[in-house]
Design a protein that fits this description.
Helix 5 links the parallel strand 2 and strand 3. The protein starts with a helix and ends with a strand. The protein has 8 helices and 7 strands; from the N terminus they run H-H-H-H-E-E-H-E-E-H-E-H-E-H-E. The protein has 238 residues and is an alpha/beta fold.
Length: 238
């Protein structure tokens, strides 16, 4: 089944991460990077305000069950935490610990937004995480798995850098069966069954919850209902 899922994903369109791990870019990847950066330029200004950050924290608490996540993962001041595909408005703003974030566009984001000094942000794709094996107590991957070129490889890399007893917090927008998005930013359309089958190859589900898919920016703009569903999982290695 893993092979089948890999085939399914390899037949999808490449995205902003493609080419990073191999040191080359395709024309489409450059276009997608430009498009992503244009969006983030606007969002960086909005997220820099304390009012927006307060709303983002509220979103994490109400729709991504942050208090539950903190309780299950036992995250605290001594935890080593990684956010894979951190973007600008990372959950790292809202948790404790020694915090690291990776994103292929990190160096560009640093020009747009002043990350808090205690966050260590590094340019890297999820398919090639630049950290040692068994290094992190908690790894987050929030609304990113449908953006990456190879979700299976990304999950494998997350498993590699996670301590044997560490926790992986995964948030994904789910789609009904049979829906396919023509959207270069999201090369994969994940259904609940595809996602759970994929993660259960490498992880055990310790916590599972769902909420309406609104998104941080949508929530900030007053939207309180979503068409799709967001699944929030806490996973551990078998």
């Amino acid at each position: 089944m893993l092979r089948k899922i890999r085939r399914l994903f390899k037949s999808s369109k490449p995205n902003v991460h493609a080419g990073h791990s191999h040191g080359h870019h395709h024309h489409n990847d450059d276009n997608k990077e430009d498009s992503e950066l244009a969006w983030q330029k606007v969002w960086a200004k909005e997220f820099a305000s304390s009012a927006t950050q307060a709303l983002c924290l509220e979103y994490w608490q109400k729709h991504r069950f942050l208090d539950d996540l903190k309780s299950v993962t036992k995250i605290g001041p001594h935890s080593k935490v990684l956010d894979v595909g951190c973007g600008i408005s990372s959950v790292l703003h809202f948790v404790e610990g020694e915090r690291y974030g990776i994103d292929p566009l990190a160096e560009e984001y640093k020009k747009l937004y002043a990350y808090p000094q205690e966050l260590n942000i590094v340019a890297a794709p999820g398919e090639l995480i630049p950290f040692e094996d068994d290094e992190f107590d908690v790894v987050f991957n929030s609304n990113v798995l449908d953006h990456v070129t190879d979700p299976v490889q990304t999950l494998g890399e997350i498993r590699r850098v996670l301590k044997p007893d560490g926790f992986f917090v995964l948030t994904v927008e789910l789609f009904p069966d049979g829906v396919d998005r023509d959207d270069p930013h999201h090369p994969h359309t994940l259904t609940k069954s595809i996602l759970l089958e994929m993660v259960k190859k490498q992880f055990e589900v310790k916590y599972q919850n769902e909420s309406p898919w609104i998104g941080l920016r949508g929530y900030m703009r007053g939207f309180r209902e979503g068409h799709n569903t967001e699944i929030i999982l806490v996973l551990q290695q078998y």
